[in-house]
Amino acid sequence: MGLSIGIVGLPNVGKSTLFNALTKAQNAAAANYPFCTVEPNNAIVMVSDKRLDQLSDIVKPQKVQNAIVEFTDIAGLVRGASKGEGLGNQFLSHIRETSAIVHVVRCFESESIIHVDGSVDPLRDIEVINTELVLADIQLLENKITRLDKQARGDKKIKPQLDMAGRVLDHLSDGNPAASFDERESDTFLELTKDMRLITLKPMIYAANVDEDGLAEDNEHVKAVQKFAAERNSESVKICAKIEEEMSGMSDEERNEFLEALGASQGGLDLIIQKGYNALGLISYFTAGVKEVRAWTVERGWKAPKAASVIHDDFERGFIRAEVIAYDDYILHEGESGARTAGKLRTEGKEYVVSNGDVMHFLFNV
Questions:
Q1: DSSP 172-201
Q2: Is the pLDDT of residue 256 over 90?
């Protein structure tokens, strides 16, 4: 499995500039006019993970494979998008396919860059986008209710879902996202929504996009976005999309020096991916051999057989046991042999819950 993130926001807030930086290539148009992006751009981005570098220094593999994130840059939405305004709700369907959303919010002033509403107001901009996402979900749910109502006439078992759909619709109609619905973890809700892909049920990461001057200290726009996100239990991150784009052509060494000069230990793009992992409850475990050192993405709480399935379904079906070394032990004892000698290699069964950073080897038989 992997992480997929949709990048949304009003036109001219820096979405495509951010996308260019993410992909380390100028393959998403970035220009000073609305609707520059007319088709969703997709890219597969490697997740930066220093642990892979340390594992590789020890193992000396033929190949290193990072975990990946798929990013989708979606054309700027405007007020009325759910009803077809601007480029319309064709783009809302692309958002439904992602597992999380990065909402880029403009938090800098500039007379040379047009704002579709004539002024910079992050909370107003957030409300515009979030309202359109809620309205799109309302349309989807109303269609679902129509179908359920017909089915319930001949099948009484459908009624609990129909009743649940009505309560969710009331919640959305009050302007609330599905993610704040009190019964969202109930079996009936999960059954109702499993194939609906409600947009407002997805984790939202608010990216406050600043200019270079805004990196050193949070301006009032950034503080407003951070407060808004915190009140809704959402993640937020401050970025300068323009600087991230400039760094995309640098080597890792140059990039690290540049970040150090800015007083930052981590780039905004890495933070976005980290926030995405946190929001979705994802972790990585590693396999390490002379042919390949690789990071694998799984959900926090997965047991060993399920975690093995991301390598191949046969690993789960024929799971026998897993050999596990904690990452810190693997590094401390300079590899599998040293960890085994020190008694740090463990044999775990089907009930073992995988920890972030585990170095694992699976034994299976099918």
A1: HHTT--GGG-TTTTSHHHHHHHTTT--GGG
A2: no
Q: What would the two tokens of residue 120 be?
A: 């910079």
Facing residues of 289 across strands? Answer: none
**How does strand 204-209 pair with strand 319-325?**
unpaired
Instruction: Note whether 192 and 186 are within 8 A (CB).
Output: no
**pLDDT digits 0-9 by tens, 136-159:** 899 999 999 999 999 988 788 899
Nearest CA to 202 out of 280, 112, 263, 89 is that of: 280
Q: Which element (helix H / strand E) includes 103?
A: strand 100-106
Residues 308-324 have a mean pLDDT of 96
| Reported confidence tier of residue 84, pLDDT bands at 50, 70, 90 | low
What's the CA gap between 42 and 50, in Å, rounded? 25
Summarize pLDDT for 289-313 with one digit per residue, the tens.
Answer: 999 999 999 999 999 999 999 999 9
Distance CA 93, CA 194 (A): 16
Residue 94: closest CA among 68, 69, 76: 76
Buried b (16+ CB within 10 A) or exposed e, 69-95: bbbbbbbbbbbebbeeebbebebbebb
